[in-house]
UniProtKB/TrEMBL annotation:
The keyword Oxidoreductase applies. Keywords: Oxidoreductase. It comes from the Bacteria. The gene is npdG. The lineage of its organism: Bacteria, Bacillati, Actinomycetota, Actinomycetes, Kitasatosporales. Residues 26-117 form the Pyrroline-5-carboxylate reductase catalytic N-terminal domain. Pfam families: F420_oxidored. NCBIfam families: npdG. Gene3D superfamilies: NAD(P)-binding Rossmann-like Domain. PANTHER family: DUDULIN-RELATED, F420-DEPENDENT NADP REDUCTASE. This is NADPH-dependent F420 reductase. Coiled coil: none annotated. The keyword Oxidoreductase applies.
Length: 234
């Protein structure tokens, strides 16, 4: 039997076999905002080492002290440099400028974009479509030397920040071009009790995932809820 034949008979990788990410440092750009602060708190509470970033280092350090759980604060550049994985949780209107300013610091890093481009009017929230197709694709275009993924779009900041809540029962859709990278992000999501990371396609499909947040906002307003997502039969 040739080596080629042997490789063809190799068993398929278990899609739920994920790497150990417990030793990785996670940076959160926009970590002083509600979503970033909530993610930082949950990951640190799960035992992850977390650094939050802000344009103002003093503001980041003050927020880190409030979060507790060993979270550190730094300016955005230092946060990016010191982290293995960097979650982008900045406001949409500052997304491009922030990433452009950190291109060098984010080179070689695994970047997880969780930004949702949304507009608001008297009818409620609605999705915006960036020229690149999505926030994640914009990030990939601006960071050619980084490994960009997309995840953590549909999480309630209220639930993330509430210390009385032990579990957040929800799925996290993860998108990216490399299975090794999406596996890492899925494993990171799974560190938070109740969460599961689910591969949901390549970055070209990120717009639909980002846009769905507008629908969840409508659900939450109607039902006074903090809705998330569950994907069935997987």
């Amino acid at each position: 039997m040739t080596e080629h034949d042997q490789s063809k008979k190799a068993p398929a990788k278990d899609p739920w076999e994920l790497p150990d990410v417990s030793g990785l440092v996670v940076g959160v750009l926009g970590g002083t905002g509600d979503q970033g602060r909530g993610l930082a708190y949950r990951l640190a509470r799960a035992g992850q080492r977390v650094i939050i970033g802000s344009r103002d280092a003093d503001r980041a350090r003050a927020a880190a002290t409030e979060i507790g759980e060993g979270v550190e604060g730094a300016d955005n550049a230092e946060c990016a440099r010191r982290s293995d994985i960097v979650i982008v949780a900045v406001p949409w209107d500052g997304h491009a400028a922030t990433l452009e300013s950190l291109r060098e610091e984010l080179a070689g890093k695994l970047v997880v974009d969780c930004v949702n481009p949304l507009g608001f009017d008297k009818k409620g929230a609605y999705a915006l479509k960036p020229a690149e197709g999505s926030a994640a694709e914009q990030a990939a275009a601006l960071l050619p030397d980084s490994r960009v993924t997309a995840a953590f779009h549909h999480l309630s900041a209220v639930l993330l920040k509430d210390p009385e809540i032990e579990r957040i029962d929800t799925d996290v859709m993860v998108l990216g071009e490399s299975r090794a990278d999406t596996d890492v992000v899925q494993a990171l999501a799974a560190r938070i009790p109740g969460m599961r990371g689910v591969f949901a396609g390549r970055l070209r499909n990120a717009h639909q995932v980002e846009s769905l947040v507008a629908n969840l906002i409508s659900v939450n307003r109607r039902y006074k809820a903090h809705a998330g997502l569950r994907i069935t039969d997987v």
